[in-house]
Fold this sequence. Notes:
This protein has 131 residues and is an all-alpha fold. Helix 1 packs across helix 3. The longest helix is centred in the C-terminal third of the chain and has 28 residues. The model has no long low-confidence stretch (mean pLDDT 92).
Amino acid sequence: MVKALAIAGLAASFALKINRIMVNRFGEGAVKFLIPLVEEVLKTGSARLFGFSVPVIHLGFGLYEAGYDLLANPGTGTKRWLAALLALIGHGLFGWVTWQLMTLTGSLVLAAASACTAHVFWNMVVLVMKR
């Protein structure tokens, strides 16, 4: 489990750096469309590359994102806890979708593309909720 968390942490680290560059360059559009693609490729790709369970790496990634959300939203309000909870739920869901479709279709590309699509819609909903 420690190795899986290390792989998830590596994916989360790369995502954080790439996401910052994309948001600085493309703004909110990156959050809606580009970041889901990058994150799904990093999570699923690292799971497959290192031979780990796709859902476990996705959940581990969600744990790191939840921790980031708690640190990035200081204070005692519910906003930071909601962001953390949504990170866990969202990445867990994307991992489950990827794993299910990989199992059903045998296609890694279809599974990752479907999870990316779900992630795009998820981010759009979350952005609306933030307003």
